[in-house]
Amino acid sequence: MLGLLVLLLLWFSIQPLRAQPLAPEVCLSCHGVAGLDKARDGKKISLQVDGQAFARSLHAPLGCGACHSDASAVPHPPELKRVDCSACHAQAATDFSDSVHGKARENKDGDAPGCAGCHGSHDILRVKDPSSKVYPLNLPRTCGSCHGDPDLAKRHRIPVANAYQLYMDSIHGRALTRSGLLVAANCGSCHGAHRILPALDPNSSVHRSNVPATCGQCHAGVVRTFSAGIHGKAASDGNSKAPVCINCHTAHEIRRVDMEDWKVEIVRECGVCHAQSLRTYRDTFHGQVTSLGFTRIARCSDCHGAHEILPVSDPNSSVAPARIVETCRKCHPAANASFAKYDPHAEPANRTRNPLLFYSSRFMSGLLASVFVFFGLHTVLWAGRALLLRRRKAARSPEDREPPPAGESSPGEEEKQ
To answer: What are phi and psi of 291, to 5 degrees?
Structure first.
C-alpha cells in the first residue's frame, strides 16, 4: 500500500503544472481602460471590455481564459487565436458551419455575422433573458442590423432587401414588438437559429416544400385544413406550381386578413395563378365593384373558401351543386336554386361551356353591330344630303335669295299663277 502511494506521488510530481487562468480583474486592469484599441487592416478595433456587462453575462463564472485560452499570463501574446465557440457549443457550431452565414464566413466575407454578431461578445446572456440580443422581442432588431441595410442587401444580392422593415409592419412584427406577444413568430421561428439555409435549399425550413410545416408550428389547425384542400394536396404531391402559405400571404409582409387593403389585394393574388378566372370575375358585378376598391362584396375566398378550397366535383366543396345555395345565402339570405344558377365566371366566347350563352351573346353582338351600322349609315346619308342642300342654297344668285318687296310676288310665283 505504501509503495502505491509513493508511485502516485511520483506520477503527480512529474506532471507539468497546468497554468491557472487569470482572474477577470487582472484582464480588466488593461481591457477596462476606456479608449484601449489597436489597428488592424487600416481599421481601429476597440479592445475595451465593459466589466459590468461581463460580470452579468452568462460566461462570467468561466472567466476570460475559458474563451481566450492563450492569454494565460500577462503580458499575453500581441495576437491571440480566434475564439472557438465550438469547444463548448459543438452542435451549434456544426449547424452554423452549414448555414448561409457560415458559408459566407468560410469565403472570407467580412459582412457575414459570426457567433458574436448575434449573441454579443462579452455581454452574452441567456436566450430567455429579456436583455439578450436574441430574446424574442430583441431578435428582429438584431437581424435587422444586417437585413435592414439596403446597401448590404445590394452588395450581397439578398433577394428581400427590406425584410426587416416589411416584418416590423406585418401582423407578426406588430404582435411581437408592439403588443409584446412572445408567441408571435420572429425571425428564428421561421428561419431557424444557427442552421439558416437559403430558401432554394430543399433542407431549408423556408423552402416552399417545407413552408406549410414551418407555418404549422403555430397555425396547426389552418395547415391541417389547407393540407386537405386542392392546393395542399397538389403541394404535397410535389407540384411546384401549387401555392403554399407564402404565395398568398407573402413571407415577411403578412397582413391581417380583415384589413381593407388585404381584401382588395387577395383578388389579385388569386389571379396570379387563375388569370382566366380573374378575367371572367372582373366582368361580373362582384368583380367590377371590387376593382373600384370596395370590399363589402363577394371575393374569391367568400365563395371558394380560404384554406379549405376543394374542387367543384367534391361534395364538401362550398361551390358543389348541393352546397352552392348555402354559400350564396351568406350574402343573399333569400337565394334559392334558381338564383344559384347564376354563372360567376361566364365565358360568352366558350361555346362548349354554355352554348345558350354563346349564341345569345353572338345574337346580341350582331344586333348591336347592325343597329350601329344602320344608324351610322343613316347619319352619313343625312349629313350628305344636308351638305348638298346647303351648297345648292349657297349657289343661288343674290336676287333669288332676296325676298320680293311687299305686295309683289316672286317670278316663280308668277309662273305658277
So the answer is: -65, -20
Q: How many whole angstroms separate alpha carbon 228 and alpha carbon 1?
A: 76
Does 13 or 141 have the greater pLDDT score?
141
Pairing mode of beta strands 43-46, 37-40: antiparallel
- pLDDT (average), residues 286-302: 91
Answer whether residue 314 shows pLDDT above 80.
yes
Band the pLDDT of 18: cuts 50, 70, 90: very low
DSSP one-letter string for 360-387: HHHHHHHHHHHHHHHHHHHHHHHHHHHH
Q: What separation in angstroms does the CA of 305 have from each of 124, 176, 270? A: 47, 28, 12
DSSP string computed for 142-164? HHHHHHT-HHHHHHHT-S-TTHH
Q: Give the span between the Cα atoms of 3 and 361, in whole angstroms.
A: 114
CA angle 183, 172, 158 (to 5 degrees): 120
Statement: residue 8 has pLDDT above 60? no
Residues in a beta bridge with 38: 45
Helix, strand, coil % in the chain, rounded to nearest 5: 50, 0, 50
- Do residues 343 and 354 make contact, with C-beta atoms less than 8 angstroms apart? yes
pLDDT tier for residue 11 given thresholds of 50, 70 and 90: very low
Q: What is the helix (H) or strand (E) element at residue 46, kind and residue range? A: strand 43-46
The answer to whether the beta carbons of residues 300 and 315 sit under 8 Å apart is no
Position 7 confidence tier, pLDDT thresholds 50, 70, 90: very low
Residues β-bridged to residue 46: 37
Report which of 332, 300, 338 is spatially closest to residue 319, judged by C-alpha positions: 300
Tell me the three cell numbers of residue 192: 431557424
Residue type, 98: D
Q: What pLDDT score does 72 carry?
A: 82
The grid coordinates of residue 141 equal 432588431
How many CB atoms are located within 10 Å of the residue 63 CB? 17
CA dihedral in degrees (86, 91, 94, 96; nearest 10)?
-90
Decide: 303 and 318 in contact? Cβ < 8 Å. yes
Amino acid, single-letter form, for residue 22:
L
